[in-house]
Specification:
Layout (H helix, E strand, L loop, with lengths): L2 H8 L3 E2 L4 E2 L6 E7 L2 E8 L7 H15 L4 E8 L14 E9 L6 H14 L4 E5 L7 H4 L8 E4 L5 E4 L1 E3 L2 E5 L14 H13 L6 E7 L6 H9 L4 E6 L3 H16 L4 E11 L16 H9 L3 E7 L1 H9 L10 H34 L1
Parallel strand pairs: 4-5, 6-12, 6-13, 7-11, 7-12, 13-14, 14-15
Antiparallel strand pairs: 1-2, 3-4, 8-9, 10-11
Helix pairs in contact: 3-10, 5-6, 7-8
């Protein structure tokens, strides 16, 4: 048994997101053999939370096929991918995802809340910024409505707030500042100012992901975000009917104009599943609108989320449905969509780095 034999055995292991072998990715950094112990060090494109275990298992299987009795250790680290723009904005956050919608009432905040919880379920460190100033619903959806963020002054006199943590997710929201029944009456520049304060004056700490729950539409907050924050991309939520899909087209146009990658479209409330007849599906808001607009616009369709009573109850009761073991089917749908979003981020990271390499080579 030697390094060359092991390398030949695992060179063909495929990164399933990128459909490229570890050999072609130059991912196998070193192999160490000490007595009956084999250590393999690999480097993968971030984020690795979903893919690391899959690749580790295949590497272990390949090695065990040619050697019995060895203890196998596999160490995975992420390729460091410096931001091309605005590296000083939220420098302790690795990945920034915006959740948007063309219009209100499509369940955007429900999707954002469950997406953040699903990321945390996988062991990622996650923040959720409730940027929907007019309708801050994240505190309710996480069961922390009425809570207040702690704050302290720095040596320079600036005020720094500390997010409230619930279910492994750090949350900041204007809902922690305003009274529950207080109306947010403000014009565009004030909206952008509140959003900037929430973003810049919160001590997020080191995060793998920060999810932005944006207000509906294409207004000041969206423009401020896209101008200042180096987003990994945006996820757009819609319902199937044309009145919602038509607004999605405008959202897609806005993100493309400001050069923000669209990670994909999620169709929420795709169909209703009655609890007393789980085998039935009722297409209350029409069928296939989200998938159609994704196809027409050339952006990925991430999946369809059914309308279920347990999802509504989870939002009202402050316990996102993806965390509830009693509703595994609904949770699995959201987890699959989350995995698709992470996969898109990894593909974009690889494409971006590869493009930079080609540019430098030329």
């Amino acid at each position: 048994m030697n390094e060359q034999i092991i390398r030949e055995a695992i060179d063909s292991v495929l990164d399933p997101d990128l459909a490229i072998t570890l050999k072609d990715l130059n991912a196998i950094k070193s192999i160490e053999i000490e007595g009956m112990s084999i250590s393999v060090y690999i480097e993968l494109y971030p984020p690795v939370h979903w893919i690391a275990k899959v690749i580790e298992d295949e590497i272990r299987e390949k090695i065990l096929a040619i050697s019995e009795g060895y203890e196998i250790r596999i160490y995975v680290r992420e390729i460091i991918t410096p931001r091309a723009t605005n590296p000083n904005v939220l420098p302790t956050v690795k990945h920034l995802i915006a959740v948007s919608s063309g219009k209100g009432g499509v369940g955007k905040s429900t999707i954002a809340a469950n997406l953040a919880a699903s990321l945390a379920q996988r062991g990622a460190s996650v923040g959720l910024l409730d940027a929907d100033i007019y309708g801050p619903s994240i505190p309710t959806m996480y069961g922390v409505a009425g809570a207040q963020m702690e704050a302290e002054k720095t040596e320079s006199g600036a005020l720094i707030g500390f997010p409230i943590e619930q279910y492994g997710v750090k949350i900041a929201s204007i809902g922690f500042i305003m009274d529950r029944d207080q109306a947010a009456i403000m014009r565009g520049p004030m909206l952008a100012g509140y959003f900037t304060t929430l973003m810049d004056q919160i001590a997020w700490g080191d995060l793998d992901f920060l999810v932005f729950d944006l207000p509906p539409g294409t207004g000041d907050i969206q423009l401020t975000l896209t101008q200042r924050v180096p987003l990994d991309g945006a996820v757009i939520v819609t319902t199937p009917q044309e009145i919602s899909v038509s607004d999605v087209r405008r959202s897609i146009s806005m993100f493309k104009k400001v050069n923000v990658t669209i990670l994909g479209i999620i169709e929420n409330m795709s169909y209703f599943v009655p609890p007393d007849a789980p085998e039935k599906q009722y297409y209350i808001f029409g069928k296939g609108g989200g998938e159609q607009v994704a196809s027409d616009s050339g952006v990925p369709f991430l999946g369809a989320v059914p309308l279920t009573i347990d999802t509504r109850e989870g939002g009202d009761n402050g316990f996102p449905v993806v965390l509830n073991p009693e509703y595994l089917a609904q949770g699995d749908i959201i987890r699959d969509i989350t995995a698709s979003i992470v996969s898109m981020i990894r593909k974009n990271a690889h494409a971006s780095r590869n493009a930079q390499t080609i540019s430098i080579t030329l």
